[in-house]
Amino acid sequence: MGLKAQDDKTMVALMFETAWNGREAYEDLQWLCENTKGRISGTAQAAVAVDFTNQVLSDLSLDSVWRQEVWVKHWERGAAEQALILSKSKGEIKVPVSALGLSVSTDKDGLKAQIVEVQSFEELKLLGREKIQGKIVFFNRPMNQSGFDTFAAYGGAVNQRTQGPAEAAKYGAIGCLVRSLSSELDDYPHTGVTRYEEDGPKIPAVMISTNGSELLSALLKEEPELMFWFKTSCENLPEVLSYNVVGELQGSEFPDEVVVVGSHLDAWDTGEGAHDNGGGCIQAIEVLRIFKKLGIVPRHTIRAVMFMDEEIAQRGAQVYASEAEKNGERHLAGFESDRGVMTPRSLAVSTDQARFSKVALWQPLFEPYGISIVKRGGGGADVNPIRSSSPDMVLMGLIPDFQRYFRYHHSANDTFDKVDRREMQAGSAATAALIYLTDKYGL
Amino acid sequence: MGLKAQDDKTMVALMFETAWNGREAYEDLQWLCENTKGRISGTAQAAVAVDFTNQVLSDLSLDSVWRQEVWVKHWERGAAEQALILSKSKGEIKVPVSALGLSVSTDKDGLKAQIVEVQSFEELKLLGREKIQGKIVFFNRPMNQSGFDTFAAYGGAVNQRTQGPAEAAKYGAIGCLVRSLSSELDDYPHTGVTRYEEDGPKIPAVMISTNGSELLSALLKEEPELMFWFKTSCENLPEVLSYNVVGELQGSEFPDEVVVVGSHLDAWDTGEGAHDNGGGCIQAIEVLRIFKKLGIVPRHTIRAVMFMDEEIAQRGAQVYASEAEKNGERHLAGFESDRGVMTPRSLAVSTDQARFSKVALWQPLFEPYGISIVKRGGGGADVNPIRSSSPDMVLMGLIPDFQRYFRYHHSANDTFDKVDRREMQAGSAATAALIYLTDKYGL
Hints:
alpha/beta, 8-stranded mixed β-sheet, 25% strand, homodimer
């Protein structure tokens, strides 16, 4: 079937109309959030999320829907963490903490020691083993609030979480506390993966809420010798078989040339993974739904992928990339959305100048929706590996209004009610439109 | 004091830094929301809001802080409304309704009648008195979801609320139900003012939640004769003395030339008025706080105004404008923020081409914050009347990302937790920067 010839402006408007008037995507996200809360890879919830998105894609009557086997690490948090500031003057004060992903647990009685507060690895080095040995290192460098780009602020603070415990252990620390990577002062401890060095010591590591960090830091100024106790019971378990979920519309002219749009299906276990990144998965599915609703038969194969295990080891990304290579597929473009599903501000198209100039001609089509096309920020951890077999692949992505994203990210605060339907669907439509134009004109 | 000469780019960056690193504004908004919930004009809560903002302004050590007497209408909702769909097949079904501001109440036993559902005044006219007499008219035209501009969608539906009851009464309707002006399907009945014709009949009028509207409409298709019952106990009481609250930094060179930045302090009684428009008031105050923190001594007088009674009769706006006229003040610019306090997308500067061209030169200063300067959308109900004595006054305003605004607007859903500190403070800084440049370069 397909539509009769329509100009691009009309088609883009139709895509936004279709997205804003539709409710399926929002309802799918609600289901995912409510029924697969805590779906970090390896969990039973992740398996339900695989089945659910597989079913949603199947219900769209696409040309094919399938799953790709992915063996994933399986880390479980166990019982809720406990933590206490043990102050001589103030007594015992509970603070909210959350174990870091992949971290080892404390003994069953927990871990108790004095605190060494630092802002950086340089400071750690200056203090040296003498001051750190046998203590808990507390990384307390806040996210920088001064700039517009909250992702840059995150990037400037995240090494405390990813490398902090390993660094602290080098100087004999026996535990590690990391200030939550939140742009707000609140009581939500955030989480996220930490990476020990393979042959290095592994010490228990937790994030502490920003309010807890402020309190602890203030108390340490009064009483540098105060003690801190925390208890975790997380476990690293045997690997588990999981899946990427893929749905595609086959290209009518170039079935072996693929445009992929994807997001990660796994989400940190403390929250619902609404913005990070159930929403992005649902947007990828919605791109195909919009194509189907509008009767668009693409020239190239358009594929929506729910990648498993972005948060821990990117195993799903590796599997997808190696399958693509094995099957000799040429990937024209890889679109990844992993910055939340707030109102889209930009579409990132990262490629050489010649191809970017071509894409930049589409800019006027997005102006009625307040969206600009920019060069930086396309791709991501899930689609970038595809370039090993498709080196010319254009990296694309959605850049939403990210001012509030880091209040939610990797915490129990990342819930469905934080997602607005119109905001998310503006992103779905923008993605669909960019993919439509990419398919129509090539790259 | 004042700063040493700094270039504009540095000053704008300092303003954003100051806003994003500050917490006073966000905490003031939290206080206002928690302690003056329901502050529609004439209420005790509105009086507390006057005292509070007066105190916050006084604490800033401005050159002057004062109140302007404003006599306001006093409408009270009374006991919580009740409404039932009375279906022969489905029984009694409760639906959430909310009386419209200024509307008269039902009898103490409520009002029961059949329903006539319409989408427009034209449809009402076609049905005529014969079909409408003695019934409840149900206006059920949804906000258009298809476009980017949610304010345009609101504008396309709001006459059902403002004029619907008066129109329905002309054909003998005895009550009026209006679909909530929400962009979402949910259970929050919205509210807002309705205007009866002076000598026309006044019939009880309520808004019904969007979910309730969908349900009622579906049931009416099956059972057109179903009955509807609702009960309200709102009252129009004697007028009350209230106040605008004003704080100013006096101009060092042109004390009689004023740049005003304002918002309305009253808010609908069902919610906290966080986005509409406690946030805008707090942003206006924050502009002066930023000036003080940075030691800026303005050339012109900069004034923050909390206008009373925007929602019902704009009495505060009238008082402010007539005082300005009486005092022979020249207003250079009037900045109004009344579209919520989400991330700013544009600064509206509505003036003649010559002056707009001058202002447009400042565009590069706002680009690092994703903000464009546009011509349409400046001013608003509170500052526009000042033009009667300052006809050349430039109308300015903040245009935020408004995709989610109408989920909150005029409902119990407009609460503090819907406001993000970084989003709101980006608006505070953008406003401060535009006012700074206006003051520095004139207009």
